[in-house]
Amino acid sequence: MFVQRDVVVRQASEADASGLARLLELFNGGSVDAATAARRLAALEGIETVFLAFRDGTPVGLSSIRIPPNLSEDVPYAELTELFVLPEYRRQGIGSLLMAAAEELARSKKATSIILLTGFKNATAQSFYRQVGYTDYALAMWRKLPQVSDAEVVS
To answer: What gap in Å lies between CA 1 and CA 43, rounded to an integer?
Structure first.
């Protein structure tokens, strides 16, 4: 657990589902209810760890990190998959606390690096990541996969 003044950062649990759902809605758009957030959090068990930042008991930010094995090396690397702080709580050190929690977990699992993705046009996030020590590394590419119906699945 990370604590700074009146902010506490700790690993999310199923009991946090409604607060997590609210943050996910605001971060990614769309509609996420507590049951969906709880189901997704349970599905991440052993794969990805979610941290929540609380101020006065209210969730105000999240980070999420996965630490997969690495085929190219004998040590794992980490992937920061989510980082979000409510706009009214930004520039108060909460993002840095969420990053510190993710980085500490990565170090404890012997990861030697962290990779993260952010939007090309998200200058605010890019500036924050650079301020906390991240540098440009690679070009990420993306393709949406066409969905296959159950009838098309060949066993």
So the answer is: 22
